[in-house]
Design goal:
Layout (H helix, E strand, L loop, with lengths): L14 H34 L1 H21 L6 H4 L1 H10 L5 H7 L2 E10 L3 E9 L9 E9 L14 E6 L32 H9 L1 H6 L1 H12 L1
Antiparallel strand pairs: 1-2, 2-3, 3-4
Amino acid sequence: MPMNQINLQDSDFTVDERKTITELKQLYLETIKLDVSMQRDIYKMEKSYEDRHNAIYEERKKILDEFRKQNHGDSNENVKNFWLNVLKVSCTELITPEDEKILAFLSDMRSKLYVDDTVKFDIYFHFDKNEYFSNSVLKKTYFFNCLPDPKDPLLFDGAEIVKCEGCTINWKSPRSGGESSFFDFFSPPTLPEDTDDDHYIDIHVRSDWLIFRKCNSFLYRTDNTEQ
């Protein structure tokens, strides 16, 4: 239990105990400062590898593009609809039959990390030309708070996502309202100022990142199927 959550009154402590606890809190604050610095260094290291990752992802895109070109209309849907299958591994409950038709045009997914004054990352969804919308790329951005709350720094538990932004989808035909869709992903709700509601964060923010992390899960499942 964090020290600031111990529900004791000052009168419960002797003078020496209060002095010791104050010293321990100061030491804990020093560890928090180190954690903040360490997390910033981790982000910078991830950023330094971004170009090398992208070189690999570009090769992946070439392989998938070539497969689709060589097997157009003459293949099952496993590799042809590679990214649709990746998404169905992680969030199948969000994808409607109509969404599947659109996501069949999804040709690539990438991310970009920013580690300057504001730490944030973008997820890019690249689409082939299609009859549903005119965008070639749909983007969602996540913003991190990497600093402890100055009002209660002892509660700091690492960086957290505090805001996310979607993009406008330029639909070619009006969309029927009322039914949930995967594409609601690009119209995220405004996060409440009080982000202590972990349930809210889990549903609307943290689970989104799984979408980009599921590529290996799909490949692993495919490898096991073929053995």
